[in-house]
Specification:
This protein is mainly beta. It is built from four helices and 30 strands. The strands form eight sheets. The chain has a four-stranded antiparallel β-sheet, with no helix packed on it. Helix 1 runs antiparallel to helix 3. The chain is globular, with a radius of gyration of 23 Å. The relative contact order is 0.09.
């Protein structure tokens, strides 16, 4: 085979493998793929691509034209195999922010296998996924910017310049806007982060909104019109008009508001007061505190179970999780023995809660029904938060 033909053929083989799910085994066509492609390209590095058997057949025919010795019968089997493999359900993936090694680790949740280690900016702190899970936005505290990750390929595709000490991020339900808190500036950066036809990702800075002192966590309303920001040092909550890029109200809360989550019905805000060991529940319409619930020391994060019946709170200072009834706000259970718990994320089926244990450099997996620790998965240095990409 001529050298040029070999190079082109190798490129097509690479494209073919780049579309194969690494977890596919034991299906017709696998042996053909391994024989003709596996010698040069490790299958476990493959990434899924959904494509019809006809489209795969055209790709394989180009391989044959460039000198591949795959027969027509093998080509048909291989095309069918790849088309069927790509339409199978994919496993959910957890993205863990490892602050001290400047990496995001992607972990397949069913197998606990690390599928990617993605280098980002200096000291990443937060993470937010686009509504379809295709992109992840990672604020980097020391480099004052936001890394954009393509989660299909697990690579950084762009950077957004943010304010000082870029901290947390949230994306509107339509994926059009991403908001990032800047604690050292007392601002929130607003970016347009839309995906245009042809899957071309575009992003640019729209402006900044001045909020309270040391803004930390940002949450977006279900309708995408409003954002809420906890301001730790001014002890209040900023309410933002996203489209208008302005603060429309500020609500006093108490000492050290940090964690925030909106209830599944969108009617109440749950805010953790880090310096008081309390969770306060606020009416979205009334902007008044409805309930106060004592939890552990230094409540750090809040997450609602997928069924909406309970809210889980990580208590960094008491190495515990508090479980609260989502209706009454009453504490109904506690899980202990998790060192310095930080970020929380539920598995898509709601059966397990993945908890960042910052002191242990690990993710602790908790059985939701039994309210007990199931296992511990080691991760990178000083992990902080976690986000879950659901199968599409």
């Amino acid at each position: 085979m001529r050298r040029g033909a070999m190079l082109v053929g190798g490129l097509v083989f690479t494209l073919l493998l780049a579309a194969l799910p690494g977890w596919v085994t034991g299906q017709p066509g696998k042996a053909i793929l391994e024989k003709h492609c596996g010698g040069c390209h490790p299958l476990e590095r493959a990434v899924s691509k959904e494509q019809s058997a006809e489209a795969w057949a055209a790709t394989i025919e180009r391989m044959r034209n460039f000198g591949s010795d795959i027969s027509r019968r093998q080509a048909r089997e291989l095309a069918q195999y790849l088309a069927q493999a790509a339409t199978r359900p994919k496993a959910p993936v957890a993205y863990v922010v490892n602050e001290d090694i400047h990496e995001i680790w992607a972990i397949e949740m069913t197998t606990r296998r690390i599928v990617a280690k993605i280098g980002v900016g200096q000291h990443p702190h937060g993470i937010a996924l686009s509504p379809d899970g295709r992109f992840a936005y990672v604020p980097n505290m020391a480099s004052n910017n936001v890394s954009i990750i393509d989660t299909e390929r697990n690579v950084v595709i762009g950077t957004l310049e943010a304010g000082k000490n870029a901290h947390d991020a949230a994306v509107t339900p339509d994926g059009k806007y991403t908001l990032v808190t800047n604690p050292s500036d007392g601002t929130v950066s607003v970016f347009e982060t839309a995906v245009h036809p042809g899957s071309q990702h575009v992003h640019h800075v729209l402006g900044t909104i001045t909020v309270g002192r040391t803004p930390h966590i940002v949450e977006v309303s279900p309708d995408g019109r409003t954002a809420w920001v906890t301001n730790m040092d001014s002890g209040d909550l900023s309410i933002l008009d996203i489209a208008g890029r302005r603060e429309i109200a500020r609500v006093p809360l108490g000492k050290g508001p940090h964690a925030i989550a909106v209830s599944p019905d969108g009617k109440r805000l749950w805010v953790g007061l880090y310096d008081e060991g309390q969770v306060v529940v606020i009416g979205v319409e009334s902007r008044q505190i409805m309930t106060r619930a004592p939890v552990g020391r230094n409540p750090y994060a809040i997450a609602f179970a997928p069924d909406g019946k309970a809210a889980w709170v990580s208590n960094e200072g008491s190495d515990s999780l508090s479980v609260l009834d989502a209706g009454s706000g009453a504490v109904i259970a506690e899980v202990t023995g998790i060192r310095e718990p930080h970020g929380l994320a539920f598995a898509p089926d709601g059966r397990a809660l993945w908890v960042i244990s910052r002191a242990a450099d690990a993710v602790v997996i908790v059985d939701v029904a039994g309210r007990k620790v199931l296992e511990t998965v080691p991760v990178g240095k000083r992990p902080h938060v976690i986000a879950v990409k659901r199968p599409r």
